[in-house]
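Notes taken during the Thursday session

The instructor put the following on the board and asked us to keep it in front of us for the whole hour. The protein is Protease HtpX homolog. We were told not to look anything up and to reason only from what is written here. First, the residues (299 in total):
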Amino acid sequence: MRTRLRPDRQLVARMGVTMFLLGLLYVAFAAALIVLLKSLALIVVILGGMLVAQYWYSDKIALAALHGHLVTEDEAPELHAIVDRLCANANLPKPRVAIADLELPNAFATGRDARHAVVCVSTGLIRRLDGPELEGVIAHELAHVAHRDVVVITLASFLGVLAGLLMRTAIYSQLLGGRQRDQNMLVIMGAVAVVSTAVYAISFLLIRTLSRYRELAADHDAAVLTGRPSALASALVKVAETPARIPTKDLRAAQAFNAFFFSPVGTQWTLFSTHPTLQRRLDELEKVGAQLGEMTEAR
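Then, after some discussion, the predicted structure tokens were revealed:
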């Protein structure tokens, strides 16, 4: 199904390059593990099984981790009305709608494709934003679904998560093994730790680079879809200012999902950030506002 949102060729190209490079990295990672651990069947089963689970159950995993639950039209009529209106305007299939029981104001989209997507907003976000602002945030998440970058970032994150897990396992194995472990096994686990660290670092950089651009693309399309860039900009400012009042433990629990969130949680911007700076996003929205004004005048 073709949506009414503009195709973003730069985003498509970036996603293609990222997935190609991560695919090469994935194959090299699997080959290195096979050489080091000498167990082809075990590696294939573990890596393949985890990849399929990440792809097929990404929505359920994210909702469970962030205390989210699906809501019906009777339970959240205003939220469903916003999603219905935006999907009709964008010619998108309606995703499932969920609410996360979090004081942290944020939102995310997940799912393996547009027909199995979930758009989730937190209770903290609903309380803090007015109607147009909430509509802007939901339009931003629907733009992610339309661009299909949700599944790309989900699969891209898998390799980094797996590498990080193996890295910690290998390190702990060495620390706890001591002299009682066979020296050859310690060397192998040390090599696994080094390879996993390198894979984690490379996938980390690739994901961050893609993530920053996809956020700008979603901001642009959300502003065009709603026709209210100023409302989305206001939502960004409100969400960015709120974390200072959120308990530290809640911020730490949510930081692992920064790449999926509408706005990053509890971090200062660096070259490794998942999102552009707030000022960059506001500047881009201001440009969209000027463009929309020019289009209105031309009519």
